[in-house]
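Recall the central idea of this unit: under ordinary conditions, the amino acid sequence of a chain determines the structure it adopts. In this exercise we apply that idea directly, starting from the sequence alone.
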Amino acid sequence: MIVGCGPGAPEYLPPVGRAAIEQADVVVGAARLLEAFAPKRAERIVVGADVAAALDAMAGHVGCRHVVVLVTGDPGLASFARTVRQRFGRAACRVIPGISSVQTAFARIGLDWEDACVVSAHNKVSSRDLAGQKKIAVLAGGEKCRSWLVALGVGREIFVCDNLTLPEERVRKVSVAELETMPLVSLTVMLFVAPEVL
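Accordingly, the structure predicted from this sequence is:
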């Protein structure tokens, strides 16, 4: 079973996801997710840099114990859920979606997102491919994507949403110049919005 844990804060975890986690014998996920959500009695498998090792550790439990994989945000958006499904098969993975960080980011700035284009900065997407889009949500984080993000910001309003729902949450509107130099944290959603839709 794969449970989307929402943007981060425990109160943003849907009740159906919480119930599934509480029944788990083995819980798999990033250290911060295990700390926030895993029951004390459950065995834990930490997913770190060596993803293959975590999947191998999981494999020993699949089919004989109740395994729950915790993923951030929505399992359908740039998620570890895809890797789990590829390894164990889609039919073997029941997915419980969470509240996505993209949904939360748009809510924070008070804007609908029904016509938004959602992309991951880690995928190969050109800012030119997004030229006509009026609302773009980027799952960002990390320095490698900075120049691409700066190019995307030209002519658009930029909202940087860090650590959504967590105590250190920060949502701010920035300029292209600020985006060129500001620190980029790993839990970031950036919204690029055409001025006329605000």
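The chain has two domains: 2-96, 101-197.
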